[in-house]
Amino acid sequence: MPKRRISKKTKIRLSILGTLSLVIIITFFVNLITYTFNISKLSQEEQRLQNEFKELQAKEQNLKIEIQKLKDPEYVARYARENYLYSKDGEYIIKLDPPKNENKENNTNKGKNKDIIYIISGLVIILVIPFLKNKRKTKKTT
Fold first, then answer.
1. pTM of the shown model
2. CA angle 89–92–96, rounded 5-degree value
3. Which of 41, 11, 43, 30 is closest to 139 using CA atoms?
4. Rounded CA gap, 21 and 27, in Å?
């Protein structure tokens, strides 16, 4: 069987369409990954806000209870002695400072950004290597 010759126009057309297809596929996967991470981040934000909302509701209930307690004069007197250092006659007040706890913030966004970069670069490599191998084979055979 004789080999079929491919014209120069057909080779140019195939290379242009192949490159365009590859760019479209890469763009699709990059957008897919970006949207997936955005959806994940938004769902985590939603969960955090729901937890914060529950905490605020509990705080609201505690404040309503505190309002009811502040209507009692004995409770108000004890509250003033504890929080504002008022004293009865003959009492001494000794103020103790609470121990300081240093809160260190962990910045996890940097780690997430690195993960995204690694995933995208891995996908690009996976998609580009077969294309390059095919080009090398066609160069060797021609």
1. 0.44
2. 145
3. 11
4. 10
